[in-house]
């Protein structure tokens, strides 16, 4: 059990979000709601707008119109660090940590939550030492939760690719988020690593009660883990529902099989 179990996260609501890049509409009035403690997947073929959607949620891209709210808070125009401070943490598709030990990387993640100043820490004042110890203990718990416990003191570059990618996930968890945005968490992994990471994601939701938004190309993983799925294609929502509902949706099948109508512009 963990002592950080908190009340349910607030509802994350994306309403009518539109993003344009020059002439291209990357997201076109996209809306979805992430229920507290649920796992919501955003899927779609290449170029559908999934990363753009994540960039809006994490404050890296400002939409031309529409809003993103977490409970009562409007996140739409906040800087990324403010959004993170409100409890929305993300991982990145292509970042795989290579420096330091697992512990070093997780402590970097804890740094944002540290109250003791740099000088107090450097001078090893008692309060700062106590705080540091508590952060280290929590980092160790997070390592256990993400399957990295045995590697806590290992240099990251000696770990397998799958473990290294989970270091990024564990570092995001060190922010103690209420909402976790996972951008292709199993990309590039082999089958065993994918299964391991899927199990970790399931555990996170069960044990921490987090809301999770998942962008992932691995449909098996999405269908196994998601409570709800939003399907994008060319920036538009083409389907929304439970995994079973979307997997049978003719528009989804068309988008994935590339046999779309002229209007959908499939090649
Ligand atoms: N900074 C940008 N400037 C111009 N166009 C962009 C920019 N970012 C994304 N796009 C375009 O917006 C559209 C949506 O891209 P996005 O990366 O969000 O799709 P995606 O669903 O994440 O794709 P993938 O599965 O390949 O990662 C694409 O046509 C892409 O080329």
Overview of this protein structure:
The protein has one domain: P-loop containing nucleotide triphosphate hydrolases (Rossmann fold, 3-Layer(aba) Sandwich). The chain contains ten helices and ten strands. It has helices spanning 50-57, 80-85, 102-111, 118-122, 126-145, 161-173, 191-208, 219-225, 243-247, 250-257, and strands at 12-21, 24-34, 39-43, 65-70, 73-74, 88-90, 179-183, 211-215, 228-233, 236-241. The strands form two sheets. A six-stranded mixed beta sheet has the order 6-7-8-3-9-10, sandwiched between helices. The protein has a four-stranded antiparallel beta sheet with strand order 2-1-4-5, with helices on one face. A hairpin with a 2-residue loop joins β4 (65-70) and β5. α3 packs across α5 (126-145) and α3 (102-111) runs parallel beside α6. It is globular. The protein starts with 11 loop residues before the first strand and ends in a 10-residue tail after the last helix. Residues 21, 24, 26, 44, 46-52 line the site of adenosine-5'-triphosphate.
